[in-house]
């Protein structure tokens, strides 16, 4: 996907995925199973003008509000 730099997509199940973009270094391989809390990348600025993280959750291909799925602060 253009404009997102180094991108990781985690398929959680047949309905949900999460995406993490602009990574400096990806620490997992395509097809690898990952666990909750596992470090999968290092923050970077690939595809961006400064270091940042683009994070999104999609359900059935449609973006949803990630705050509904994250633990409270």
Automatic annotation (TrEMBL):
One of its GO terms (molecular function) is metalloendopeptidase activity. Keywords: Lipoprotein. Pfam families: Peptidase_M23 (PF01551). InterPro entries: Cell_wall_metabolism_enzyme, Dup_hybrid_motif, M23ase_b-sheet_dom. Residues 3-66 form the M23ase beta-sheet core domain. GO terms for cellular component: cell division site; cell outer membrane. Belongs to the E.coli NlpD/Haemophilus LppB family. This is Lipoprotein NlpD. It comes from Marinobacter mobilis.
């Amino acid at each position: 996907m253009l404009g997102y730099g180094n991108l990781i997509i985690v398929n959680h199940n047949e309905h949900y995925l999460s995406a993490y973009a602009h990574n400096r270094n990806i620490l997992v391989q395509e097809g690898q199973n990952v666990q909750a809390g596992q470090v999968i990348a290092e923050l970077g600025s690939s595809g961006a003008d400064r270091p940042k993280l683009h994070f999104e959750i999609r359900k059935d291909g449609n973006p949803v509000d990630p705050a509904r799925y994250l633990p409270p602060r």
